[in-house]
């Protein structure tokens, strides 16, 4: 942002803003603020601006995001103070987000569904194993019962008597 835009935003005069910057120049390294060249100014404004007294206007300062934040801490207008408080609160909020990232509910649900799917597959695998074991056991029981039934039929057949028996007459 340019100095005169920031001065308007922070409700101070542009010259007061620039004076504050010059008094605290160590707070504004080149990646926070720089002065526009004549060519840059011409490109931005499409002409050389003149001040009200007819001379050539001083070239504006351009501020990066960090420079705007630094400037809000230097100026003494209500708007600049409020902006600086907002910036400090934003830093705290960002730090809180980094320390306690929000839970991604969709990812959490996807993980739960994945875990449930794996659990169900394991249960069905176990069930099928038990089912196969149970089927084999039932087949064995049925075979044993069939053998017992054939044995019982043999045991229930009339046997030939042992020893002497008197013939029975029909009357």
Number of helices: 6
Strand neighbour order, sheet with most strands:
1-2
Helix proportion range:
55-70%
The major β-sheet equals: 2 strands, antiparallel
Runs in which pLDDT lies below 50 for 5 or more consecutive residues are: 51-56
Give the total of domains.
Answer: 2
Number of strands: 2
Order of helices and strands: HHEHEHHH
Written account of the structure:
This protein has helices at 3-10, 14-23, 38-45, 65-74, 78-99, 105-156, and strands at residues 33-35, 61-63. It has 171 residues and is mainly α. It folds into 2 domains: 3-99, no CATH class; 104-149. Strands 1-2 form a two-stranded antiparallel ribbon. The protein is rod-shaped and about 150 Å long.
Keywords:
171 residues; mainly alpha; 2 strands; 2 domains; two-stranded antiparallel sheet
Concise overview:
With 171 residues, this protein is mainly α. Helix content is 64%, strand content 4%.
